[in-house]
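Predict both folds.
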Amino acid sequence: MQKYDLVVIGAGPAGLAGALQAHELGLSVVILDDGKRPGGQIYRNLDKLTDKMRPVLGKSYQDGERLLRAVKHMGLDIRTEAVVWHISAGKTVYFVQKDEVAAVEADAIMLASGALERPFPVPGWTLPGVMTAGAAQIAMKSGAAIPAGRIVLAGCGPLLYLVAGQLAQAGADVRAVLDTTPRGNYWRAIRHAALGFTSLKQLFDGIGMIRAISACGIRRIRQVDDLRIRGENRAEAVEYSTPRESGIVEADCILLHQGVVPNIQLHRHLGCEIKWDYSQLCFHPTIDGNWQTSVPGVFAVGDNAGIMGAKAAEYSARLAALHIAKSKQRVVDPKTKTSIQRKFRQLTEIRKFLDTLYRPPVQFRMPPQENTVICRCEEITAGEITDLAAAGCVGPNQAKFFTRCGMGPCQGRNCGLTVTELFAHATGKSPSEVGYYTIRSPIRPLRLAALARVETNGVAADVEFS
């Protein structure tokens, strides 16, 4: 078993940038990622980008080429298709690669596992033909694939408009964008508008996305406060209402999106302290000024530390790498750190504005319809969770025991926040008091045959299989 100064989990912008910075300062580094190639979701398949998709996916996607070239030039040790399923208390990281279990030891671990799309439970969201906007973008990046038939996008956030424009440019039949951003959010957000050059550029980029879909003739319906997906055996239409109108838009494919949230599964597995962030309406790991979590030697960087965007994610990871290197008695130039800190602040000064503007309405986070499914894996409804809360169930983990909610293949990734908020609303407690699912190994599914070949010394004592 090899031992490294730093094990980085995730080969997206944060993971690659952090690994590069650590490598440049003389640390031994390995990156583990479950993708086929480095780049993460944001730079997925960038090195295989076709000429057809280059103008469709745009400059912000292609900006990742610089980072990928640097990684290739430096010859970083990157283990792709490596699925991390357990991390021991002693910082031994177990992963599956090509159906074989392997492990590496770490002095420090950098969690750069990125973000997940926020759950968007509305009536009919489990019908075939309903996807997330992020999934549609992944299909475009992976194989230049676009959904067939009439497409409707619904929700809020910059990605909604970005994907709508990309799909239209790729030749898809995009019929409408149903924007759920409440009118009041605009007035609340304007108080946080930053006027720095970087923020203004980001703001104009967002305006450009909206103009792009208008130029394509895509219908934009704003202030949507109710959504229902209609269909018998698959999605056939979206029924919506706004303060001024209601209507139905026929569709063969419906793409939902209301922002992204940190992927905290590994933090919970490691016992890192998490807290509820009221500005982003999700759990964040508690980190110090050096991006270290409450578990010594474990660092959270990029969007899994708090949603910040791809560019800011790179600088957060570089700052963490500087601290790790300094703790290893490597020489760190103070000017370099100051420069990285300045760039990080510039890139994140618009964050409060975006978080306020695209704050998802309560009815799209906690469905008022009791028969709306919130746990897709086990088909548990919102009504079942609120009934449990009324009967005295203490929180998500006891609800898991009674209903299996959160025990499916996604391990609570698609229902965890909804369950926490439903309990908080029903009991009058804060989301932090309600808590989140306890995460046990294996973090990700693995074949029993691979597990059977694991050396049990050092792993048996701290693995609990639920």
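Second protein follows, with its predicted structure tokens after the sequence.
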Amino acid sequence: MTNEFEADVLICGAGAAGLTLAIDLARRGVSFRLIEKTREPFPGSRGKGIQPRTQEIFEDIGILDKIVAAGGVYPSMREYRDDGSFVERDFGGRVQATPAEPYHIPLMIPQFLTEQIMRDRLAELGGRVEFGSELTGFEHDGDGVTARISGSGGAETVRVRHLIGADGGRSFVRHALGIAFPGKTLGVRAIVADVGLTGLSRDVWWQFNTGDMQRMVAICPLMGTDLFQIQAPVSVDGDPDLSANGLEKLIVERTGRNEVKVHDVSWASAYAMNARLADRYRVDRVFLMGDAAHIHPPTGGQGLNTSVQDAYNLGWKLAAVLCGAGDKLLDTYEAERRPVAEEVLGLSSRLLEAGKNGEIRRGREVQQLDIGYPQSPLALRAASRDRGLQAGDRAPDAPIKGAGGQPSRLFGLFIGPHWTLLVNGEWSVASRPGLHIHRLGQRGDVLDAFGHLRAAYGLEADECVLIRPDGYVGAILAFDAEGVAQLEAYLERVGLPSREAV
């Protein structure tokens, strides 16, 4: 019998969100096509901040070390006053890593380098981006999606099971679905440009006239490159001059530093700041993620990070449903991720207003480590558990030892597309594909040699914790007859039935 589907998933848009989803699907063996209407990769630095939670995701998908090697930490900020004096401070503070939170400061790497590393990882997994291929139309029904694509080889029609709109703030997919994108224009227009310049050192992030929306300019050395990124608010009217001469003139006018010379412009853009959130993330077999679902000002460095986490949330759910889990599992994508985007919009807008007054400070709230899904239908908790870690929380890391005596980390056990069950008791649950089971204690394969696992998870004797593929706690249960029955039912619901149940 001929399979009517060319692929399981068609991803429209090969930015950070589309690439994350493609990598996750590729490592799960899910067939997909990843199309991008531009003929070349995105050339700019725009989403340059990688927050700690996204670093955890990048570790899981196998690119964190390359990201760190290609970028660097943010330099300190040097803010100049009108009288020529300045204050210098660390970007976001220098908090210390902990056993539960191994990544604690944002990394800086231009978006074009991040996406290149992601494309290389995708190639390792057998995938690729189809540049110059544009989605021109689609229809969806109860069984799948029929999509029309225009590319260098002409027009084609493909049949897929699911379509993903990761195609940016002007999303064709969102418009075609008729999904409203309410919000507001924030009355701020800005430029961002990657340039080669001389006259400023690369050891600080230069800030001038902070809080003055007519004269502000920030000039940041882009780690991993020889470029600087210029950011500055501009008039909402007219077209700013984004040439090397125009940008040099802007810098001199706003800083009085005639020694600054802009030699070339690698990439530049002018944009109006908006805060908008799609009414829906899903219509039957079509989904929105990333900027197609939410846009907000760049204050706080949340955009790329939120988009990556959208994809990381959706990927394992698509794979599970394609392997037999109930379709309702896909409803949890919007239920979990849309409230997060709503919070991010509020945070970014508040930081923008603070920046207008020169009071912007980035604290823990931008790190995204406290994001969780406690109200999710996938958060199963024992009625008696009213302390510490809860279902829906981010699963903490902890240094451990294996029974063979070698040091390891919980995150090392979590790496990969599987679920993880940590058992602190003697009861057993049937083994099944897609579930890694580890038993704690002296007779187990995982030793809490340093006490950090107990401190982070608070597991009592005869308790277990189930960790989702995206690093969140799915369930914390008593590991007794009732708890095992609840666990078995939960695993079957998310597409992990025991062999006996198949």
